[in-house]
Amino acid sequence: MPCEVTQEPFGQTQDGTSVTRSTMPCEVTQEPFGQTQDGTSVTRFTLRNSSGQLVVRILDYGGVINEINVPDRHGNVDDVTLGCDDMEGYETRSRFFGALIGRVANRIASGQFTLDGKTYTLCVNNWPNSLHGGQVGFDKKVWTSRVEGDSLVLTYVSPDGEENYPGEVTTKVVYRVTDDNELSIEYEATTTKPTPLNLTNHAYFNLAGHDSGTLADNVVTIAADSYLPIDDTSIPTGEVRPVGGTEYDLRRPVRLGDRMHKVRKGKGFDHNFCLAPSDGKVRLAARLEHPPSGRFMECRTTEPGLQFYTGGNLEGQRGKGGASYGPFSALAMEAQHYPDSVNHHLLSGSIS
Question: Above 60 in pLDDT, residue 345?
Answer without folding.
Answer: yes
